[in-house]
Amino acid sequence: MRMGWTAATALLLAGCGGDGSTGPANENAPSATPAQNQSEAALAPPREQAAHWDLQANAGGSALALLTASGDTAIGLRCAADSKMLMVDVPAFRTIGSEDRLSFGSGGEVVALVAAIKEHGQGGVSAAGAMPANLAALIAGPVSASYGAQKSGPHPAPPHALARAFAAACGKKTGPEPKQPALVPAGSGSGAPQACMMQGEEKLKLSPLHAVGTEPFWGARIEGRCVTYNHPEDQNGTRVWTRYTPGPDGGTWSGALGGKKFELRTRRKPGCSDGMSDKAYPFAVELLVGGERRTGCAEPLQGRGA
User: Where is pLDDT greater, at 274 or 90?
Assistant: First the structure.
C-alpha cells in the first residue's frame, strides 16, 4: 500500500546531558600545580575543527551539507532543478525494512519524508518528498533527523546566507535579498553562480581565470571554487566542485572528477607560453586529472572578452 503524505511525525530533538563526573569530588585531594596543568595540557589531544555547512549548486540542482572535520557528510539536503522534491541523506543511519518514514526539521517545524528502502542493515538512509512550503523554517535553526529509533542531531544551524541561498535555489523564496557587493569583478561577464563564490561561510574574492593546455588539448574556466574542465571529447565542459587553497604566488583547486583526484595549481609566471602561439600569459598551470599530469597557462577571464 502506497503511503500518503500525512501529518509529520514528531522529531526528537532532546540531547544528552551530564558533565561526565562519576561521583562526588574529594575535597581533601591535592590540587594540581601549574606545572602539572601545563604538562597535562601538552599531552591532551588537539580539539577537532568544528563541523561546517557547505553549499553547492549548478544547473542540475543544489545541495546543502554539514561536513565533519574529516570531510564526511553528517547530514545532507538536496533539490533537483527539474523537480519539486526535497531529498535528505543521513549516511550514519542504517536502513530498517519495516520503517519507511524519516522525519527532518528544526524546533517545531518538522516534515516527514519517504525513506528509500534498501537491503536490511545497509548503511545510509536517503528520503524524499514533495518540496515543503516551510523549507526556510525547517533549516532556520539547529536541524535534526529521526528514523525509527535512530537520531541525528541536533546539528548546528546552517549559516543564514547559505540557508537563504539553498531555499531560494529550491524555489522557496525567503524575501528580497539585501544588496550585496559584486562577487565577480564588474564587466567580467563570467556569470559565476553565487554558490561558486562561497566556501563554507567565506565569500571568495577571486578574479575568474581561463586556463589552456596542449598535448593533449584541454581548457578550464575557473570561477571561485568552481572549475569547468573541457577537452575535445567534452567541449561543453564539466563543472568540478573544488576546495580552494590560496598560495603565496597562486592557488590550488582540489576536487574529484570521475572518481579520481582533480587538482589544478596556478603560479605567477609572466611570459608563460601555450606552445601554440606567440601569446604570453601571466600564470603557469599544473593540472592533475584522470591520473595524468598536464601543464598550461592562464589569464584573467575578462581579458578574453568573455
Answer: 90
